[in-house]
Amino acid sequence: MLNALLGRGQNGDRAVEATAKPEPRVRRPSIGLALGGGAARGFAHIGVIRTLVANGIVPDVVTGTSIGAVVGGFHAAGQLDALANWSSALTRRSVLGYLDVSFSGSSLIQGNRLFRQLEQAVGPVRIEELSTRFAAIACEIETGHEVWLTHGRLIEALRASYALPGIFAPVRIGQRLLVDGALVNPVPVSAARSLDARIVIAVNLNADLLGRGSTIAAHGTDDNDTPAPASQDPEESPGWRGIMSIERFMKRKFFTRDGMPGIPAVMIDAYNVMQDRITRARLAGDPPDIMINPRLGTIAMFDFHRAAEAIELGAEATERSMESISHAMEALS
Known about the structure:
Layout: H1 2-19, E1 31-35, H2 44-54, E2 61-65, H3 67-76, H4 80-88, H5 92-97, E3 107-109, H6 112-122, E4 133-140, E5 146-149, H7 154-161, E6 166-168, E7 171-173, E8 176-180, H8 189-194, E9 199-203, H9 240-244, H10 246-254, H11 263-285, E10 290-292, H12 307-332
Parallel strand pairs: 1-2, 1-9, 2-4, 3-6, 9-10
Antiparallel strand pairs: 4-5, 4-8, 7-8
Helix pairs in contact: 2-12, 3-4, 3-7
């Protein structure tokens, strides 16, 4: 009888085991990565993505503005290492080699040399063919519309997204004339959410620029101010002499002279102020779940020769954020 009872118990255990429901699988939330604009500082995005992937966090959605679109697009196309190798090899001299001066009325730089370099690396891939959902943010210059480039040739979308007004010429895509998306959405969190990202990790390249954007309530001229010249510098006047000395003319226009910045420096600094103000407003209204802020304050907008340093700073910032990212994923799984 004892054996019968034991056997019955064992059979009953087997019956319970057979009817027990399997534990539900934990499904991780979809992850979106919003990469902000910031010119040379944008190489930090490479370090961010590499660190996330190394920790098992592979974004399902990537949105990018300007340099953020370039790095995000190369990642989505599986060419991030190629971009990292090229950028890390840049020097001051090689950067100048990509500045093919434009004599048209819409830009200072043609940008064809840079475009060909990027096109050779990323190839003819189309956005809709990517395994990762991707959007490059641009701005329609004629209307101010925010444009999300989600299909078509990837390289054309990247070129439109980094077409800094006045520096690079606008890019015509689908009958729209497009320029740098940082004019309207410098850190595209909203685009990542709209592409079904449950958790959005954003990277702001300009958060480390402390002491900017305050108000100076009382200011005016003083005795140390240098009065503006009353007449035009003969060397800057148009004509045959100016054409014959075009190299000297361009140096005077492009580089700092007598304490006054050149045209690109003025445009970039003004653009940077505007981008900072727009970023603050957009992120206040639509904050990401996780914000990564690389400490890039010592890297200027045109310091493209410091890519390796920016990549490392991006990796360090991501490592500091890993605990917060893991906590957010656990909470939403």
